[in-house]
Amino acid sequence: MKELDLLKKDWQKRADSFQQVSEKDIYKMIHKSSSSVVKLIMIIGIFEFLFWIGISIFSNNDEYFNKLDINNIVLFLRVLSYAHYAVIIFFIYAFYKNYVLISTTDSTKVLMRNILKTRRTVNIYVWYNLGMIIFCLIIGFCIAYFYNPDLALMKDKIEHDGIKTMAIFIGSMLIMIILFTSVFWLFYKLLYGILMRKLYKNYEELKKIDL
After folding, report:
1. Transmembrane segments in this chain: where (predicted)?
2. Dihedral angle over CA of 203, 204, 205, 206, nearest 10
3. Cα torsion at 187, 193, 194, 196 (round to 10°)?
4. Segment 129-140 mean pLDDT
């Protein structure tokens, strides 16, 4: 009986040892996976920033605004653009900081906390961009309506026909804003959604280890 008890104790020690090694290996894999996901988020953010910079450089906005003769509004839009780029740079820095934190984490609880922090940062980033898209579209429609001479006939028709034509114009504008924003929402949902699901899956696996 004493020998059997000794064998059981030895087996339990071995089982505990195997469990610890297994959990340690799982943590390493999750850690590496989470670090790679956050690095990819940062890279995508940088490419997205460069893409919009390129669009801004090669577009003919200056020619369009000169045609409308709205210097004060142009100044406002330029300040808005610079402020927007500054915010995007801040988000990219936040992505980089999250990447560094996750890459250097050696604790399950801290890694879980950093994963949740990264998910919140990405969600705020996505909603900020969608909000800016809606805001810029509204500003663009307003500038076109009030200052673009090509829409003079439409303005006269709206003023002549009254509320009904105005409602049709506003409704059409809202539909275009919704459609345009939905395209970007689907883009962000597809691009960042996949990465967010991977991070959340890693978080759930870490919860099992931490129990």
Report:
1. 37-59, 79-101, 122-147, 167-188
2. 50
3. 150
4. 90
Q: Is 25 exposed, middle or buried (0-12, 13-18, 19+ CB in 10 A)?
A: exposed
Give domain limits for the chain: 31-210
| CA distance between the termini of the chain | 34
CA–CA distance, 27 with 141 (Å, rounded to integer): 52
Neighbouring CB atoms inside 10 A of 35's CB total 19
pLDDT for residue 14 is more than 70: no
Residues in the chain: 211
- 86, 118 contact by CB (below 8 A): no
Distances (CA, A) of 90 to 42, 81, 125: 12, 14, 10
Question: What's the pLDDT tens digit per position in 156-182?
Answer: 777 776 677 777 778 888 998 999 899
Q: Are residues 191 and 44 in contact, defined by beta-carbon separation less than 8 angstroms? A: yes
pTM over 0.85: no
